[in-house]
Amino acid sequence: MFEKIRRYILQLESLHVPDKWMGLILFGISMLLRYWWLDARDLCIDEPFSVYHAQKSPLEIIRLSVNTEPNPPLYMLLLHFVMQLFGDSVWSVRSLSVIFSSLTGILVYSLAKRFSNISGGLIAWVLFTFSTIHFLYGSEARAYPLFRFEFMLLLWSWVKLQREAHRRGLWLLHTGTALLLLYTHYLGAVILGVGGALSLLFGRDRAFRLTLIKSYALAGLLWLPLVIPAWDVIVHRGENSLHQLPEFMYFKHQLVSTWNDRVGYDRFMGLFLVGLFFLFFTDYKERKPLAFLALYGLVCYGLLFFGSKWVWFFSDNYLLFTTLPVMVVFGIMAGKGFRVFPVITTLLLAWVMVPVLSHFKPVPKNITYREVQQSVREVQKLRQAQEPVFLFPAWTELRYLYYANRRIFQMAYSDIERALVINEHYKIELSEEIVPRLKGKRSFILYLDEYTGTNPIGTLPAGFRVRDSVLIPEVYLILYCEADSNLFMASTEATILN
Question: Could you tell me the residue ranges of all domains in the chain?
Answer without folding.
Answer: 2-358, 372-492
